[in-house]
Amino acid sequence: MNVTCLTFNPFQENTYLLHDDTKECVVVDPGCYDQAEQQELKRYIEKNSLKVMRLLNTHCHIDHVLGNKFVADTYGVELEIHEADLQTLRSVPVYASNYGFPMYSGMEASANYLKEGDTVKFGNTELQVRFTPGHAPGHVVFYSEPDKVCIGGDVLFKGSIGRTDLPGGDFDTLINSIRTKLFTLPDETVVYPGHGPETTIRYEKQYNPFLR
């Protein structure tokens, strides 16, 4: 599986495109807001002859959902989230203007909600869905066992963790999610977070000050 990261919007959010040699592709957390960012995403997909099969959100805070409608409309895919983050998604239009995104267009998620233990399939690739609340009530991560890659959203960062002071956040819940759902992965697993550089499970076990 190939992992491509495109960083968008003032929050410097990491949007991920996952694809394999079949050219089938999933888009995770599209943060592209304005036309220039949308076109950057579209150009990458066209240049690499990718076929977008699925649209996934790790969670539904504003910086991770700004491009949902663009991707859904452009590629004819439905939005897939965990049901516990439905209220998080539906609240975004209420406060989008206050965060400087007056042109945000909301959309509903598919009723086929992601849940713990699900498998997301595209091409020759399978991703395990792991439920990791704490930063957001319906946060999930996506893990490829053969590739030892985890698309981690805002759960774990290099040397840090996701914030827990937003609605639905809880510090103890987040720490438990990291210890039971991420730190049980192989140490060499690469974690691609929602912001900043990638890290590894081994590095975070050794150096993350929140998890020693």
CATH architect. name: 4-Layer Sandwich
Looking at CATH, which topology would you report? Metallo-beta-lactamase, Chain A
Strand line-up in the sheet with most strands: 6-7-8-9-12-13
Structural class: alpha+beta
3D architecture notes:
The chain is an alpha+beta fold and 212 residues long. It has a single domain, classed as 4-Layer Sandwich (Metallo-beta-lactamase, Chain A), CATH 3.60.15. It has 6 helices and 13 strands. The strands form 3 sheets. The protein has a 6-stranded mixed β-sheet with strand order 6-7-8-9-12-13. A hairpin with a 4-residue loop joins β2 and β3. The longest helix is centred in the N-terminal third of the chain and has 13 residues. The chain is globular. It starts with a strand and ends in a 5-residue tail after the last helix.
Q: What features would you highlight for this structure?
A:
six-stranded mixed sheet, 13 strands, 25% helix, five-stranded mixed sheet, 212 residues, single chain, Metallo-beta-lactamase, Chain A, alpha+beta
Concise account of the structure shown:
With about 210 residues, the chain is an alpha+beta fold.
Q: What's the topology here?
A:
Blueprint: E1 2-8, E2 13-19, E3 24-28, H1 35-47, E4 51-56, H2 62-65, H3 68-75, E5 79-80, H4 86-95, E6 119-122, E7 125-131, E8 140-144, E9 149-153, E10 156-157, E11 160-161, H5 171-182, E12 190-193, E13 199-200, H6 201-207
Parallel strand pairs: 3-4, 4-5, 9-12
Antiparallel strand pairs: 1-2, 2-3, 6-7, 7-8, 8-9, 10-11, 12-13
Cofactor: Zn(2+)
Organism: Pontibacter aquaedesilientis
Domain Metallo-beta-lactamase: 12-195
